[in-house]
Write a structure and sequence with these properties.
The complex is a heterodimer of chains A (390) and B (249). Chain A is built from 11 helices and 9 strands. Chain A has 390 residues and is an alpha+beta fold. Chain A has 2 domains: 13-188, no CATH class; 201-387, Histidine kinase-like ATPase, C-terminal domain (Heat Shock Protein 90, 2-Layer Sandwich), CATH 3.30.565.10. In chain A, the strands form 3 sheets. In chain A, strands 4-6-7-9-8 form a 5-stranded mixed beta sheet, covered by helices on one side. In chain A, strands 1-2 form a two-stranded antiparallel sheet. In chain A, strands 3-5 form a two-stranded antiparallel ribbon. The longest helix of chain A is centred in the middle third of the chain and has 57 residues, at 144-200. Chain A is rod-shaped. Chain B is built from 7 helices and 15 strands. Chain B has helices at 10-22, 34-44, 60-66, 102-117, 126-139, 188-194, 238-248; strands spanning 2-6, 26-31, 48-52, 73-78, 94-97, 146-151, 154-159, 163-169, 172-177, 180-184, 199-201, 206-209, 213-218, 224-228, 233-236. Chain B has a 5-stranded parallel beta sheet with strand order 2-1-3-4-5, sandwiched between helices. Chain B has a 5-stranded antiparallel beta sheet with strand order 10-9-8-12-11, with helices on both faces. In chain B, strands 13-14-15 form a 3-stranded antiparallel beta sheet. The chains are: A alpha+beta (390), B alpha/beta (249). The interface between A and B is medium-sized, with 33 and 33 residues.
Chain lengths: 390, 249
């Protein structure tokens, strides 16, 4: 798995613990206060008991006080961690790149769950040692008070064992859930990829293109030849890239150019296309086949309903660390809300799986016609490789 | 037999015309969009119209809906058909798939010749047309952005975004725009079924574009009154008031 990148937004364990302490319900806080009180009484009793002793039994008593104190502190920490483990774990989930390199971004929660069992076991060990020393102390010189203290310590050990068992169970469930989540995301991506593929292989597009070729064969064999070449390019690219989740914007533009060349034969003079691409955007990493649905949408809703056709403008720019891809038409699609087809819906889904809420697709109207804008984090191929640990 | 060829691709029209002439059929005219197709059909009165479905201005279904007597036989051209459309093969409506093959075109023309010599009705039943449209819409949903309105003795396509509402008056339905009212051949029920969710039926007499509603005021009796962005006031029937409120939320 790829290394987890440091996320400045993810809270530290200490913050989580502090937050948890603050959020504890009143009755729990009261219970904790009672436990601390009992425990302080125990320690005072123990220290009072050492007072007139000397030699091995005093040393055993003293060691038992120290171990018990440390053990109780750890037990308290384990309890708080257990409460922190109940914090909402639904944090943004991010897929870095192809296939299995999936990173679930909840480091604080994960760290807490990993720490819980060891803290719990340490508490059990320390308190058990305190009991053993107390028993040894009784054996060296009997005292009923000390036996009573030992019994109360034993109750604390039972509590610590419960914490450990519970945390182990929780850690296991957490692991299971993460595995299920990872496989669910893989399935989602595979679904989205398949749908994208089907969109490229749209039978309407194919049969229309073949119809164009059949017609041009009679009237303009040279144009027919070019159209077959472009159609082959579209099909070949679709097949070759079918396994890819992401690619560069340059790849997208190559693909869309071939696609548009086929469509332009069909539309004839009704379609003009203008490109406006900032050079630095070409290296940007975008979901595979993310541009074609925008162009298809504009052709279908903007250009094709009008006898006089229209103009497409395809642009890409990067501002700060955002990439903005826009496809505009000057057609009369009458309301943006009703212009969204399956191609755009699928693109939305894929962007969400890859970028979470950091990417969005907006469909709106301009003074001239319709516009679809994809806004996503600007990542170049080098950075994407590093993230993926390649 | 006289045929009108309708297709938005010039090369495709030329190919169809050439193929038809090889089949001893007279091509009387060509049209590149739905509105031109209607004008040609009226001017030339062809026996058969070979009609593309996806076209600028008005699609094939709208063209069939607006054909005036004497109505020609209709042969649809579709780019893609699933098996469902085959069910209509022997009904009053024929179709060929693109790219059209010589054999299939010959078959369609032979069938049309037989029907014309039977002197049967060339009328495509409205129910059949609606069924075919529904079947095709499953594979490729149409989102209409224009509507056909009467224009002189013919029709023209009006951009739906310019239409505030459709209103029925004495059985005549017209589209209300900022530049006036235009009569349409559709009924309000037809429009309601054909148009995307952008329009909402507010009473038996009115179908209003949702975005053009400025405000809603309740009347005491359960009905409501809409004020539209152009200042028009439209009554919402008691039966529709709840639906209208829901769509505005």
């Amino acid at each position: 798995m790829a290394p987890v990148p440091h996320d400045p937004e993810s809270p530290r364990v200490a913050d989580v613990i502090r937050g948890t302490l603050r959020q504890l319900p009143t009755h729990t806080r009261r219970a904790v206060r009672a436990v601390v009180l009992v425990w302080l009484v125990l320690i005072v009793l123990q220290i009072w008991d050492i007072r007139d002793r000397s030699g091995a039994s005093a040393a055993a008593e003293l060691a038992s006080v120290l171990l018990g104190t440390a053990g109780f502190m750890l037990l308290g920490l384990a309890q708080v961690l257990r409460a922190a483990g109940d914090l909402p774990t639904a944090r943004p989930v991010r897929v870095i790149t192809e296939r299995t390199a999936i990173i679930v971004d909840a480091p604080a929660v994960r760290r807490i769950l990993m720490a819980l069992p060891s803290v719990g076991v340490a508490a059990v060990a320390l308190i058990s040692a305190a009991i053993a020393l107390l028993v040894a102390r009784v054996w060296l010189g009997a005292s009923p008070v000390v036996l009573l203290i030992a019994i109360m310590y034993a109750a604390a050990v039972v509590a610590a064992v419960v914490v450990v068992g519970d945390s182990a169970k929780r850690l296991y469930a957490y692991g299971q859930e993460q595995a299920a989540r990872a496989s669910r995301m893989e399935a989602q991506l595979a679904d989205a990829r398949l749908a994208a593929l089907q969109a490229q292989m749209n039978p309407h597009f194919l049969f229309n293109a073949l119809n164009t070729v059949a017609a041009l064969t009679r009237t303009d064999p040279h144009a027919a030849e070019t159209t077959v070449e472009n159609l082959s390019e579209v099909l070949r690219t679709t097949l070759e890239r079918s396994e890819q989740v992401e690619g560069t914007l340059a790849d997208e533009i190559r693909f869309v150019s071939a696609y548009l060349s086929v469509e332009r034969q069909r539309f004839g003079e009704r379609l003009t296309v203008g490109w406006d691409l900032a050079p630095e955007t070409l290296r940007a990493v975008v979901p595979a086949f993310s541009m074609q649905p925008l162009v298809e949408n504009a052709l279908k809703h903007g250009i094709s309903p009008r006898a006089e056709g229209g103009r497409l403008r395809i642009s890409a720019e990067c501002r700060a660390d955002r990439l903005r891809i826009a496809v505009e038409d000057d057609g009369d699609g009458f309301d943006a809300r009703y212009r969204e087809g399956t191609g755009l819906g699928n693109l939305r889904k894929r962007l969400e799986v890859i970028h979470g809420t950091a990417a969005n697709v907006t469909v709106d109207r301009t003074a001239l016609g319709g516009r679809v804008v994809v806004d996503l984090p600007f990542v170049t191929s080098g950075v994407a490789d590093a993230r993926a640990g390649r | 037999m006289r045929v009108l060829v309708v297709d938005d691709e010039p090369a495709a029209r030329q190919r169809l015309a050439a193929m038809l002439e090889e089949l001893d059929v007279e091509v009387v005219g060509e049209a590149a969009d739905g509105v031109a197709a209607l004008a040609q059909a009226r001017a030339l009165a062809p026996d058969v119209i070979l009609l593309d479905i996806v076209m600028p201005e008005a699609d094939g279904f709208e063209v069939v809906r607006h054909l005036t007597p004497p109505k020609p036989l209709v042969i649809f051209q579709t780019a893609y058909s699933d098996h469902a459309i085959k069910a209509f093969e022997h009904e009053a409506l024929d179709y060929v798939v693109k790219p059209v093959t010589r054999a299939r075109l010959q078959q369609a023309i032979d069938r049309a010749r037989r029907r014309l010599s039977d002197r049967g009705s060339t009328e495509v039943p409205a129910a059949l047309l609606a069924r075919v449209e529904a079947v095709l819409a499953q594979s490729r949903p149409a989102r209409r952005s224009r509507v056909l309105v009467r224009h002189g003795s013919g029709h023209r396509a009006l951009a739906l975004r310019d239409v505030t509402r459709f209103t029925a008056n004495d059985g005549l339905v017209s589209a209300v725009t900022s530049s006036g009212q235009f009569l349409t051949d559709y009924t309000l029920n037809e429009l309601e079924a054909r148009l995307p969710g952008a329009f909402i039926r507010v009473s038996r007499a009115d179908l209003v574009q949702v975005d053009r509603i400025d405000r809603v005021a309740s009347n005491g009796d359960g009905s409501a009154t809409l004020t539209l962005t152009d200042g028009d006031v439209v009554r919402v029937s008691r039966r529709r008031a709840a639906d209208v409120r829901r769509s505005l939320e």
